Amino acid sequence: MAVPTPTIPNASRPYFWQEYPPLVVVAIAWILGIFVIAALADLVAPYTYTALDLKARLQPPLGLGGTTRHLLGTDELGRDVLSRLVISVQVSLLIAFASTLLSAVIGLTLGFLAAHFKGWLEQVVLTLIDFQASIPFMIIALAVLAFFGNTLVLFICLMGCHGWERSARITRSLTIAANEQGYANAVHALGASSWRVYFKHILPNIASTLIVSMTLTFPEVILLESGLSFLGLGVQPPLTSLGNMVGYGREYLQTAPWILLAPSCVIVLTTFSISLAGDWLRDRLDPTLR
Amino acid sequence: MTPLLNVKNLQRHFSVEGKTAWLAGKKLLRAVDGVTLSVQRGKTLGLVGESGCGKSTMAKLVLGLIPATAGTVEFDGKSVTAQRNQAWRAARRHMQMVYQDPLGALDRRLTALEQVIEPLQIHDKHGEIQPALAAQNMMSAVGLTDNLFQRYPHELSGGQRQRVVLARALVLKPSLLVCDEPISALDVSVQAQVINLLDDLRQQMNLTMLFISHDLRVVRHICDEVAVMYLGRIIEQGSAKEVLTHPAHPYTQALISAVSTPGAKNAAKSSGRIILKGEPPNPVDVPTGCSFHPRCALATAHCKTSAPIATRISESHTVSCHLHTMIHHGSGS
Amino acid sequence: MGRYMLSRSLRALLTIFLVVGFAFTILRLSGDPAMMILSADAPPEAIAAFRQSWGLDAPLWQQFWGYLLNILQGNFGVSMRDGSPAMRLVLEAIPATLALALPAFALNLLIGIPAGILAALHRNSWIDRLVMSFSVAGHTLPSFVLGLLLVLIFAVSFGWLPSGGFNGVEHAILPVLTLTVGGAAVLARYTRSSMLEVLGQPYIRAASAKGLRWSQVVIRHALPNAALPIITIAGLMFGGLIAGAVVVESVFSWPGVGRLTVSAVGNRDLAVVQAALLLITVSMVATNLAVDAIYSLFDPRLRANSGAHQ
Fold first, then answer.
1. Residue A287 DSSP code
2. Are residues C165 and C204 in the same domain?
3. Is the pLDDT of residue B14 over 60?
4. Considering the entire predicted model, what is its pTM?
5. Residue B70 three-state SS
6. pLDDT for B269
7. A233 and C266: CB-CB below 8 Å?
8. Which is more confident, B40 or C309?
């Protein structure tokens, strides 16, 4: 009876796909692609996003009867959908990026303050966190927009107030844990100033957890911003964002659905990719976080 | 000669909120309840007791890491406060601590060498000492080989980590080293090595040490003097040799009887282990009178009502127990 | 239980107070409330009367007190559009919103929870993957996109359902469906995690080692323990439904509180915005409180003895 000779399995290829599941790879590729487009928007867009061409209104995209002049068709004012899409991506991503960063900074600062000073300051921060967590942000955002109007800077600041409570909670609990019995205490005992302890030691240690939290906030801001822009309350014309485009395209749902389908697809694919990649990142960096 | 470390009537109370006490008021946890001790330069004082007796709190109080509720701590003639200001931070050069959990005490993102360099970066900003060189020398002195310098804490064994903690504590050549159960978390086979290392370093650098432990054998090996703590108070102290071979307090006798090596002379020991009756004490509910009386086989009615004072029973030996007060001062007649 | 509910109630009151303070602050910060709430061409006597009734000439804390009193009486001012009292407009819009929110909530529970349980019980099987995919999709799909897609498919292409308006049950189908998807997705996900965590506990293995059938183990041991976190999430979903309603009502031209608020924001009709904001907040806080109460009824750790020393 022949004994089958053992073969050494080809470890490299299957292992790669185990480490990086194909769906995650696609997601990351999409994200990178979108970021590149956002960065190079002005170069990539074939037309200026405000360029009117009233003779070419409501042209369908290529493949549905359109021409190569407008790959994704035109809208009701003859503006090239592809160009507007590219610029919208830039605007939406810019807002999402700035807001996520702002939210992380706010959360980090308040979390540190609460953990360091304790006492009434901590109670204030905890109450704020509770407050933020118990009211849906959409409502707060609406109220602020109603009262203050809408400039881009104000809007970004408003979006930056979304999700900070998560970062604050994480920062506070991790800082307390570190201070309580860990290396932070030891470094304090070495004679380090609080600044040094927080920025050279605690911050790098909680960075990975914070980054994962930011990957949660990022798509949420995109959804929030596009929702508000869709309602006409977010990014104001002449600026355009993904939600904006969907909002304007709504009137032409029956006649020219591509106007809103293109940005909708981008929104969905982008948030989906970031969620997927974020989940995967979270599992890799810190499986205890769920 | 002024002792390097001088502690007088040190107290540290924590208020504890029990759930039932929400209406009744807060209770007091007397972690350290009137401790007086001193350590001469170059000597090692061992602080022993069960868990919960207040040893770790003492370590933090002595270094000024937490504020005292009452009493004073003096280091080198100067008062130690817990104010985290510039002066406090500068004083760290002279007093350092070694921890029970070496992994927890190290930042897991820094290599061993970086950990040891850090105190130099904090205190010696003008670069008078070459940080990398000084750190490497110190690490070699504690027995770490070159190949370990670039490793991260989780890549080192327990003994190696504790050596890194030691090196970090000693690189600025402090005069006082407080060791809080430095070997309890290590494998038994490694414990002896680390203790011997501590002993060597102590002699080379003329360190003054406060050595906190519940392990009497180690204390006997490395300490010049011993103080026994129970429920936040010192119940016996004196030279290590004397206290550990001729324990006067019933509690100390029980502790010794649990670890005595064959051949040790112990006047009070008759046949074997002394088992303490009752539950380990709760520092929130300190018994009246002598705090040890619920568990003491020799307790009298007097012990329940009045707290004993420290009685000197020989030149280097004091004990807080009514039995000895009566023996030395006569029993009423 | 009493202590727990007391502290939760205090928290709830504090939250409401903070929202009132928030509304007051942004009201004062953003300009002259009299001009904003009444309207630009209100007669001077009306402005003066408003100023007085709202105490706008008085020091700040007095103003706040006056504001608070007005709020408590339900007086938010009048809508810019038609001059009717703001609170009344909001209250009138509530039934429409509830007509969407309640069925959506029920559907969330009916779809989300069983889906999550199934996914947990058949972990890593195709059922699990299917449920998780839908869950992620539902979570990342913005409700306005979903709504428009549904309209595109069902109303425009197939013509089965109307695309908007408020005239009958068939008008409600698409909006309710849109609202349901997001919530069911989140609920399925949480239910799955909660179940998985419970199923991994040693007492589950002990129960099945006792000889119980797997279905009995699940029903008698796993589900009740997994239920607690699910109850909390289900309660929080109410907030998500409100936020979702804002968008969905606008997509389907459904005359509920959401659409009212959106148009009020667009018109800077601040009286209505305030009224809506406070009403929504109060209902959310009340719901959270109710969830806390239910939770404490079921959690033996809270129920047993609030005085027991841990």
1. T
2. yes
3. yes
4. 0.76
5. strand
6. 47
7. yes
8. B40
Identify the CATH number of the domain defined by range B5-261+272-330. Answer: 3.40.50.300
**Domain at C106, CATH number:** 1.10.3720.10
CA C239, C241, C243: angle at the middle one, nearest 5? 70
Residue ranges of chain C whose CB lies within 8 Å of a chain B CB: 3, 306-310
- Helices A258-285 & A242-249 angle (0-180, nearest 10): 150
Only one residue has tokens 């016996």, namely: B236
CA dist., res. B153 & res. C231, Å (int): 43
- Tokens representing A135 are 């009211």
How many Å apart are CA A141 and CA C26, to the nearest integer? 12
Measure B180 CA to nearest chain A CA, in Å.
12
- Using DSSP, state whether B33 is helix, strand or coil: strand
ipTM: 0.79
**C6: part of which helix (H) or strand (E)?**
helix C2-29
Residue C307: is its pLDDT beyond 50? Answer: no
Q: Which residue of A has its CA nearest to B115?
A: A187
What does the pLDDT look like over C94-113, one tens digit per residue? 888 888 888 899 999 899 88
Q: How far are the Cα atoms of A50, A266, B17, C35, C244 from residue A90, in angstroms, in the given order?
A: 15, 12, 55, 38, 26
Buried b (16+ CB within 10 A) or exposed e, B224-248: bbbbbbbbbbbbbbbbbebbbebbb
Q: Among C29, C47, C72, identify where a domain stops.
A: C72
- Domain residues for the domain of C165 are 87-303
By the 8 A CB rule, do C185 and C138 touch? yes
| Contact C16/A at CB under 8 A | no
Cβ-proximal residues to A64 (8 Å cutoff; 6+ apart), any chain? A73, A258
